[in-house]
Specification:
- By secondary structure, the protein is of the alpha+beta class.
- The chain folds into two domains: 135 residues, Alpha-Beta Complex (DNA primase, PRIM domain); 105 residues, Alpha-Beta Plaits (2-Layer Sandwich), CATH 3.30.70.3300.
- It is built from seven helices and twelve strands.
- The strands form three sheets. It has a six-stranded mixed β-sheet with strand order 9-10-6-8-7-12. The protein has a four-stranded antiparallel β-sheet with strand order 2-1-5-11.
- Helix 1 packs across helix 2.
């Protein structure tokens, strides 16, 4: 029983990932992954896993990267197909986190994701924080449109929102982060009572946090359609901007409701995915 409050078992979780694979796999392929694992379900112990141990099957490809801070070589798992995906879910992976660059050019991101993190909300008003996140997302969208850009939007799978844009790969992570920091500074100057780059939660108050560190080299983000460790088994779901305006509860998209929607609307974040495998082999596989 992986989600006891709603009665979702490990088998149902596997069935969801099996069904959602055609939509999810293009967002995972050729991207180094971090796994968020809950082997006993959402009420049990959990941990993040970047490094694939030697006893994992040989057919699961890896991408090796040396992290100076850790001082060691890390073998990130890669997901190419359904077998890879279900193998890792069967190990208790609820959420897949992707790096925003691909293995053929790991220092240059090909996607920009803006993380709009709502303030903590009291139990008596669970929707107020999301309302502020929505307002912040619209402000950022309008600012990007002034630059001739049209961002996509999705729920984070929790109470936040993600804005996404494709990149041409000409800028490295530090350069993209500098551009993003400038964008955030302008937005905060317009609405300082709504937005902040203050990382400490106790200092944010009721302001929405704009996280430029998602674009740091080696940092990861939640792609669309993955399951989050919430009591209701919610998933990260792309929306139109009109749907965002009408959305009352971002947790309405779950393991049990997502597929019906996807069969109707398809992958709204398809412009941010590339099908197929990279022509450049991963190192250390």
């Amino acid at each position: 029983m992986y989600f006891p409050q709603v009665g979702i078992t490990k088998g149902e979780l596997l069935a969801y990932y099996h069904d959602v694979a055609p939509f999810l796999l293009p967002h995972l392929r050729d991207r180094p992954l971090t796994l968020e694992r809950y082997p006993e379900g959402v009420e049990g112990e959990s941990f993040y896993q970047k490094d694939v141990p030697s006893y994992y099957p040989e057919w699961l490809r890896t991408f090796s990267k040396k992290y100076e801070r850790a001082g060691k070589l890390v073998h990130h798992p890669l997901v190419d197909d359904l077998a890879d995906l279900l193998y890792l879910v069967n190990l208790g992976t609820l959420t897949f986190h992707t790096i925003l660059a691909r293995i053929d050019d790991p220092t240059h991101p090909d996607v920009l994701v803006i993380d709009v993190d709502p303030p903590a909300a009291g139990d008596e008003e669970p929707s107020s924080a999301f309302d502020r996140a929505r307002e912040a997302a619209h402000l950022l969208r309008d600012q990007l449109r002034e630059e001739g850009l049209e961002p996509l939007v999705k729920t984070s799978g929790k109470r936040g929102l993600h804005l996404g844009l494709p990149l041409d790969g000409s800028l490295d992570f530090a350069q993209v982060r500098d551009v993003l920091a400038t964008l955030f500074e302008k937005a905060i100057a317009r609405r300082p009572e709504l937005l902040t780059q203050e990382a400490r939660k106790e200092k944010r108050g009721d302001r929405v946090y704009l996280d430029a560190l998602r674009m740091a080299h080696g940092a990861s983000v939640v792609p669309p359609y993955v399951v989050r460790p919430t009591p209701v088994a919610s998933v990260s779901m792309p929306l139109t901007w009109e749907e965002l305006d009408a959305l009352e509860d971002p947790l309405v998209f779950t393991v049990r409701t997502a597929m019906e929607r996807l069969r109707e609307v398809g992958d709204l974040w398809a412009p941010l995915s590339l099908p197929g495998r990279s022509s450049v082999p991963p190192t250390g596989s």
